[in-house]
Amino acid sequence: MKKIIAFAAIVLMSLSAFAQSGKSIYTRYSDEKGVEAVYISPNMFKLIGKIPDVNTGNGDVNLAPIIRNLSGFYLLSTSSPRVISDLSQDVQKLIKAGKYDLMMEAKDDGETVRIYTENKGEDIVSLVFFSSEPGEVSFICVDGLIKQEELNILIEKSTR
Hints:
- The chain has 160 residues and is α+β, with helices and mostly antiparallel strands.
- It is 42% helix and 34% strand.
- It is built from 6 helices and 6 strands.
- The radius of gyration is 18 Å and the shape is globular.
- The relative contact order is 0.16.
- Residues 1-19 have low confidence and may be disordered.
């Protein structure tokens, strides 16, 4: 009996861990009717990261060091009322699971944008962007290792 209870506990813990990731949210909603979905794989990031210099429009900020360390990009956008409700609840569950901290919030004319980060020490391992406005929500999750010093350099160069 103890073995069955232990097995059930392990299964439930692994299922709850699966439910609490950007990838699992993407997987759940990407095939829903009325949902726009984009996924970029780790292989694509590695390919982009091999390009010598991936610069922004002004040419001063090289994004390659950050891009090559990304492992997934998940984007969902919908105006379906049912999906808006369910997706919003799932994102809140993800955030409330305790892995993410609010980095930024902006509100304007009924639209709210929040950016959350999951950190491992000084480094960021996941970013979640959630935007909601009446009749539409967008969810973006970027997974991978973003070293704090590389991010600081990007921010410094982009603000010059």
